[in-house]
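User: Structure please.
Assistant: Input sequence and predicted structure:
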Amino acid sequence: MQAKKRYLILLSAGACLVLLFYLGGVPLPAASRSRHDRSRNGYRPDQPWPHFSDPLHPFLPWDQADTEEYNLHISPTQKRDVNTSVYKGKRCRMDSCFDFSQCQKNGFKVYVYPQQKGEKISESYQNILSTIEGSRFYTSDPGQACLFVLSLDTLDRDQLSPQYVHNLKTKVQNLPLWNDGRNHLIFNLYSGTWPDYTEDLGFDIGQAMLAKASISTENFRPRFDVSIPLFSKDHPRTGGDRGYLKYNSIPPFRKYVLVFKGKRYLTGIGSDTRNALYHVHNAEDVVLLTTCKHGKDWQKHKDARCDKDNAEYDKYDYKEMLHNSTFCLVPRGRRLGSFRFLEALQAACVPVMLSNGWELPFSEIIDWNTAAVIGDERLLLQIPTTVRSIHQDKILSLRQQTQFLWEAYFSSVEKIVLTTLEIIQDRVLEHGSRSSLMWNSHPGGLFALPQYSGYLGDFPFYYATLGIKPYSKFTAVIHAVSPLVSQSQPILKLLAAVAKSQYCAQIIVLWNCDKPLPAKHRWPATSVPVIVIEGENKVMSSRFLPYETIVTDAVLSLDEDTVLSTTEVHVCTNCQQFSHRFKHLRYSFLKKKIKATTRSFKFPYFLCFTGSGFCDSQIYFHCSKRTADLLLY
């Protein structure tokens, strides 16, 4: 019995030793590593190196994933995906993939590569480049640039498209300033091709930023990329038509509640939602029309519903539907974005988004909950009930916001491009970036420059929102270009007349004359301060500069020879108090005298111009002596 116990103990000990040798827990004399190798890797005899049965791969930074050592541990498929993916730098952010040094030194300047001979370029991309070259950000010196834009057309990266640029990978890599895409911005509208329509651009963008349409939230790099809208080749370069909201009727009734008219894909990506629209179509107030009649061989693949859908599709005019519906469905197509998005905005038809995973255009700055209904493709059957439950006041607010956003940021290629650049500038110069209120309320981020002031109260546009009432008095700025030689000169009479106004807080004489400043005693004594300052560059536009001595919201800009009485100043500075007596004022000069005419309609806010320029709330306007008209504000 004792012998059996000893044999069991010996057998157990032997099994334990074999197991230790197998797991590597005990170093063997014939180990492959030399003493030199172990010491080089931090091995010390008094501190055994821990060994695991399933060793972890060494950590490498994301941007070193294509090194030879890393490639030993991944499959050929994984290696190909990493090297060809448009989002190789998926972890890129401004602090890791952008060099701020040039921007801090020279400001936010944008350089466009010179166009290479023989390279084809689409009209849409030419419009983008022309907008940048005509903007205040453009520089022709790459040494001064903070941001670089390719002259190679990257808008359409669908290999089946005639606009597709071949060999772009080689062409981009050969650019002398490419630097792995650092501080570069790439514009793109279409990526991928049939059948998957991936977001691959077909070349390595490195550390470049993307201004991309139809970008998914999965691939979108927050505060690095910019999501832009999908726009057609006919989208105007500048200007653009205004929105179609003509009347703010309450309740805001339209003929249809919800409409859509577009292609139906029988199979493949983007087909599920559009194939299911017939379930909620009622041909009355919910009109959702699709057609299979697209593509060369559509008849070979048509289903049982195609003929009926096509016949009903042809009965309705798309524009008539668009302009007579309260809500417009914007389902995804083959890609996440759709032309229907901008069409709905312009038509004051509240977009109902059905494109799961789409990063909406300019989502970094725009609060889309104030202008659109964000739906879920999986809850299509609930959409009609949802939109019918929205209160009329909310509908009116949504429609008004669609018009503001359309006209502020989307009505032209110019506005889309400038908005993109302003967003990036706000990131680079973060201390002077715009607030959400600036972007989402009139007049919009393109017109309220944060370089002017970081305090919203300095902008008259936000008085109502902030509950601020402007100061009731004005500052008169008189532009002087003639020497003061006589006490009977018009400028002195003008100064005395303006100073007598109870609404005048101070008078500033901007001396742009070649002669020296007159002595202080040459100016008449007045009841308000008279400040004489010398113009820096002696040009007429210097009257519009925001001088620190101006302490009021309203500024009356005057020529030195303007003939104006105190009564006329009263009328022009306090028009609202006269609105019960003058329904509409229109001043016209007739033999240097002012004639007032009336009309049968009334405006709550207006300014009167009389041979001068009146600035309300720090926005300068000027009117010459020969033209005086009413400004509706």
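Residues 25-86, 576-611, 616-633 have pLDDT under 50 and may be disordered.
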